[in-house]
């Protein structure tokens, strides 16, 4: 059993993924789970053999046995639970976005720094082996200096007016939906890879369904079947379904990305293509084990994820031989291995903290500033500095 004791708040998609990934990290043990519904926490505890469960997240946060809190709740609860956990002296791994406003995120990153706690955000995509490989190739200038980046993050799960989720309610989600939910991942990943920050944005956002059908029964899902009108209420939606965003980076690189939760056939397509002096590199989350290398003078290449062909940094987060496909759950495992390695060093009072790769509260606060600048740019229809 691991000696770092973890409590997970939430029992939904993200929380279950965290619990499963935590079981792949040698030094930790999940000792408690909390949900707003006690029965959900009890079910999750039984399924994953977790000894404690709570119907109130604050009880988990104040459980003296717990060293680290994972906050896997809807966006509007990130600030409250992250803050309470830091004040209780717990390390925190929060789901993204860090909060729903820049002010809240700023307060959280300051608090984490003051308390000296390990505070990370689950920006998972930087933890894929081939994303790390691209980062290393860019840093070593294998293809020269980058000048242009394009890409996007496309999904289709909110295509129909009958697709509904708490993310449609801006009181629970915050003022930005597609940008904060998936655009935040794109910005974090590309900033990580390029090693430079987005400093200016020009955005054009859109809403396909200003009115959606919300199931009266909270547990119902209409993903595959058309709902009956009597089972729904019509609700107004004021957050974006899609958007196109021009970006400028601090080092002079320019770029563009699109985000959409209403693009048929695109399930979880986070992709980016970096053009540099002597070549281009492209990665697509839906084909995560392939790296496209574009050339002007020789045929283009596809590099498969294979530790023996990659940099030591990328090889170190590759766990299976080439051809044994790794994906989203493996990237989450990598994030946790990285995060808990730092907590382990703290426990052992080792001072070398420089090699951590996970997104800190400070970096996630920077992403919140981009999200806010995007909303302002769309409203004012002009460039906005981050
Ligand atoms: P979900 O709706 O599947 O789960 C939310 C969970 O929060 C539910 O179990 C609910 O019971 C719990 N909850 C709600 N209010 C609570 C309260 N007061 N106390 C305790 N628990 C409470 O939502 P999902 O998809 O898991 O999203 C949760 C968060 O995770 C979001 O912020 C989302 O952005 C993030 N997320 C991040 C991913 C990533 O790639 N890093 C992947 C999926 C989600
Ligand atoms: C829903 O859009 C979602 O689950 C996001 O919340 C995640 O962060 C993303 O990784 C996948 O899609």
From TrEMBL:
What SUPFAM superfamilies does the record point to?
A: Glyceraldehyde-3-phosphate dehydrogenase-like, C-terminal domain, NAD(P)-binding Rossmann-fold domains
Q: What's the domain of life for this entry?
A: Bacteria
GFO/IDH/MocA-like oxidoreductase domain residues are 132-282
InterPro entries listed in its UniProt record: Gfo/Idh/MocA-like_OxRdtase_N, Gfo/Idh/MocA_oxidoreduct, GFO_IDH_MocA-like_dom, NAD(P)-bd_dom_sf
Residue ranges of domain Gfo/Idh/MocA-like oxidoreductase N-terminal in the record: 4-123
Q: Which GO terms describe its molecular function?
A: nucleotide binding
> Can you name this protein?
Gfo/Idh/MocA family oxidoreductase
What organism does this protein naturally occur in? Paenibacillus chitinolyticus
